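Subgroup meeting minutes
Present: P.N., E.W., G.H.
Scribe: E.W.

1. P.N. recapped why we're keeping a running log of single-chain structure predictions: easier to compare across weeks, and new members can see raw inputs and outputs side by side.
2. G.H. added today's entry (255 aa).
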Amino acid sequence: MVYRYFALVIVASVPLWIAGYFIDAVPLLPIALPVSALMAFVPAVLALIFVWREGGASAAKHLLARSFDWRRTGNKLWYLPAVLFMPAALAIAYAVQKLIGVELPELRIDLLAIPVFFAMFFAAGLGEEIGWQGYAWDRMKGSALETALIIATVWMVWHIVPYFQTGHDTAWVVWHCMVTILLRVVTVWLYVNGGRSVFIAALFHAMSNVAFFLYPVYGSHYDPAIAFFVLGIAVAAIVFLWGPQTLARFRFARS
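Output recorded in log:
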């Protein structure tokens, strides 16, 4: 059933991929998002349909209610990495680029843009994580790392067309696809340690996108190859410390 879900998410996104080649992005924001970005809501819509068929309206309502299931996270310290992980990783990536001599604009944070970006990307994050984590992950078998990598692969393939539609070249897309895989591992790590909260997964998802678009000139100077190596070190540490079987072996102590 889960793999049928994955297939249908991709198939249902195809019309939006096609539309992305014919319809220009609406210039409401200083960032260019293709029309295909609307596919962010496809995973949630299909997950709710699948759950409705499995358990009726009450089951679908329960899944939808997990959008704000922040109470499931017993140790609220987990909200710190959910919010700060990706901004910190990209700040390090920026420092590495400067260190190796890449000419970059000064890192300036547009404080007024943050709430706008966050609201937009949190809604999109829920559209994805209700499906990827709330529906798919909870129905998969195997170790936490194995299931994370399976979802990551589907997630990566699903993003390839929109990545190209943002005007990037093949090398950028390949490296950012690798970044996408690492981000799914981090998402699962936060999800399992955060009480299987869809909210914390969507929060991390949103902050990852916010951090990307706060990179100099709305992400245009972001180098996914450098980001991959920075994130790769962090993810390797996570897998080593928390264990690939559950990604939850090591625990933060409560303050």
